[in-house]
Structure formats: C-alpha cells, structure tokens
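Why do we bother with holo predictions? Because pocket geometry can differ from the apo form. Keep that in mind while you read this record for protoporphyrin IX containing FE.
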Amino acid sequence: MRVSKKTWLGQPDSYARLRRIESLDIDANFREIAALFYQDFQSVMLPASFSNFMMTFAAPRISRILGSTGELEHRAAKRVVDMSLLTSAVLEHGLGAELGRDAARRVNHMHRQYDIHEDDFLVVGSDAVVIGIALAENYGWRAVTDKEREAVRRFHSQLGQAFGSHRPLPGTLKEVRQFWSDYMDRELQFEPQNRRLARAVLNYYITMFPKGLRTIFRVVLMADVDPRIARACGMPVANMPTRWIATRVMKLLGRQDPVPDGGKDGLAELAKTVYPNGWEVNELGTHIQAKVVRSPEPAGA
Ligand code: HEM
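The structure, written out:
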C-alpha cells in the first residue's frame, strides 16, 4: 500500500510557504506574501473576521448603516460567506486578474450606495491588520516575520482602496495600531442596533461548529474581542478563566497548521452551505439601488 506523503507547495517541507515568502519581493509580491501568510495560519484566523464584524458594530457611525440595511440580522450566512468570497477573490487572484477586479467592482458598487466616512474605511482595514497579525503571533505554529506583517498591511491598504476608500492605511504597522486604538477610544459607543447586530452574527458564527462545541466557541470567539468593542456591543467582556480556556482552545487549533496541500478548505465548505451549486461574482453581495444613504439616526432596540 502506498502511503501518501504530506506536501506544502508540492514539497515535503512544512516551512515551504515561509521559504517562498522569503524569496519574494515585498514591493512586487505583497499580495502573494499575504496570501501565503493566511494559508500558513489559516486554523487560527476565524476569530479575525468575527472580531472585524464586532468592531464595525461597536462604532455607531458604521452600525447605523449596517443596521439600516437589515442584511446582517436577516441574512447573516449569505453576508458572511459573500464577504469572505469577495475578499478572498482579491487575495488569491489579485486586481490584475478578472475575478479579483470583478469582486472589487461588485463591492465598490455596494459601498457607493452609502455615505461612508473615510476614517471608517480605514479602521475596518486597520482592524483586519491588527487582529490578524495578533492571532498569528499569539496562537500560530511559528513566528511571524516582519515581511509578513508589512505584506498584510500593504494588502489591506490596497484592498480598502479597491473597495472604495480614498486613502491608504497609515504607512507603518505602528501607525496602523495607533490609528486603530485612537479610533477605539474616540468612536466606540453603545447603541441598541450594535447589540442586535452582534448577537445575530455571533449566533451565525457558532453554527460553523458541531452542536456539542457551540457553547465553548461562543466564549472562544468573544474572548479575542477587544473589551472596548465588547462593551460597546453590549456583550459580556471575557473574564480571566474564560480567556484562559479560549487561549488553550486557540492554541490547539493552531497546531493544525500548517495545513498541507489539498487539506481542509474551510472557505469552500462554508460557501457550499449557501451556494451548493457553485457561485458567480455577480450573485454575491446585495443589489440595492438606493439613493446615497446618509448615516441614519440610531435605530430602536
Ligand atoms: C476596508 C474596509 C471595508 C472592507 C474591506 C469591506 C468589505 C465589504 C465586502 C467584501 C462586502 C460584500 C459582502 C456582502 O455582500 O455582505 C461589503 C458590503 C457592505 N459594506 Fe463594506 N467593507 C469595508 C468598509 C465598510 C464600511 C466602513 C461600511 C459602513 C460604514 C461598510 C458597509 C457595507 C455595506 C452596507 C455592505 C452591503 C451589505 C450589507 O448591507 O450588509 N463597509 N463590504
């Protein structure tokens, strides 16, 4: 019987992605470096997208818009899946490829229906950078390199601009972290729609886990959310014991990395739950032809 050997980028070397990253040029290949980074740390990345949603709900200028569309409360599965597919189309294929460009055009069209503040665009991108890197650093199977950190910053800067932001992210990781933290102190505030959105999306995220593990993952997902964000969402802030448990669970997940070639593809599995027969970029996202919506007043509880 032939025993199939595990490979990474076709080689029997679990550090092959890192070696490829080291061989790439940051200016020419930051997107590819970021994509390899996310592949190498994929098992610990789920809380990054969750935390990113929570951050947008904690900032009333954003949550008023997201609350007004009702999409996340009523079609959370489609919204989360579409978000992941459109973002990963740009990450995997780049803006030089048709699929990446179509995805950017689709998201831009959605964003143009709303009056989105520049700082809000920047903070969503900054959050993805800050949290994604922190998860890899805290729970990852190997050390994160400076080249990876810079590639992730540059990728999210490009992504934000491709999706409608008029400004790049701050020019260094230190400045991105500062911008993010200042925004947290300045803009976060509880409003009733924050909690409605947070509960709806948390209830959806835990369905990604087997029934018996949902209670524990409710805690694990919230434990990595910044306390300022949790409070502004009207959600409980994780205490020390729950944070301890969450850290152990995340470290266990981190041991599944680096996932070898042909290993579990979490995004493809998730996409099948919404699109069992496959999908096309034009089907993704919302197709609302609204006149530009000004950030509305807070919605009722
Ligand atoms: C760099 C920052 C941002 C990125 C990468 C991003 C990404 C995306 C993506 C991929 C989608 C399509 C997913 C879907 O169909 O649900 C989307 C939709 C949407 N985004 Fe953004 N976004 C950003 C910032 C913002 C901000 C700051 C706001 C609001 C203030 C916003 C409001 C919306 C709305 C209203 C939709 C349509 C779906 C819905 O109604 O929930 N986005 N965004």
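The chain has 15 helices and no strands.
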